[in-house]
# Entry
Amino acid sequence: MTDVLKLKVVLVGPPGVGKTSLVRRYVLNAFDDRYRTTLGANVYKWSAPLDVGDRAIRVAMTVWDTAGESLPDGMLEMYLYGAQGVLAVCDVTDTATATGLDPWISATRNLADVPVHILLNKADLGPRDALLVGLEAAREQAHPCYVTSAKTGDNVAAAFQDLARRIVVQAAVPPSGPVDDLDKRIALSCSAPRSAPELAEARGISVPVTEARLERLRRAGYVQISALGVDTAGRPRIAYTATSRPFNEPLLAARG
# Structure
C-alpha cells in the first residue's frame, strides 16, 4: 500500500523572478512569458508518486506562490504557517534579486526550521550575473542551489521533488536530533572532502538519508561544508569535511 503524504511548500523571493512561472511549469507543465504581479498568494495543488529509497510515497503537495512585494505585517507568517519546505527564488541574471533573498530566507528561518532550496531562475536568458551571489547566500545557510528555467523546464521538477524527499527523510532523521553511531561513522569518513552520494555509496544507505545525517552532523559541529556550488547540469554540488570536535558524549545506537 502506498503512503500518502500531504505537504505544504511555499515559494518566496523578490518580485519578477519567476515564482509563478516555476509553479505553473511544475504543476501544469506550462509557460507564459507575460508578467503578472501576484497579489497576496496563489495556491496550487499537485499530486505525484515519489520514491524515497525503498519506500513508495504519493505526495499531495499544496504549493503557495507568494507576492514578491513587501507584505503587510503578519502576512508572511500566515503564508509560512504549517509549511514543511520553502523554495527561495531569484533571477540568475539580476544580482539585486540574489541579495534580495536575504530578508525572505531570514524570515523563513525565524518562523520555521524547514528545508530550503535556493532556485537561481531564468537560466535560459543568458549571463548568470547572480550565480556567485546566490551561491554565497546559500553557503552561509547550507541551502542547496538549483539553476532553473521555468521556460525550458530545466531542473524545475528536480528542485520540487528533491525538496519533497528532504521533507520526508528529515521527519525520520530530525536535523536537530542527537547523533548516533552511524552519524559518527559518516563524520569519520569525512577526513577528506566527501559528497553525500560518495558517502551514501560507501555506507550502503540512500542519498537523501545521508544528506539528512550530514545536516544533523553539521548542526552539531562535527562536519562543515567545504564546498557548495552547482554541477554542469545546474544541480547542487556540496562537499563536507570533518571538524576537530571529538565525539565525547554518549551516542545513540543507529537503527536500521
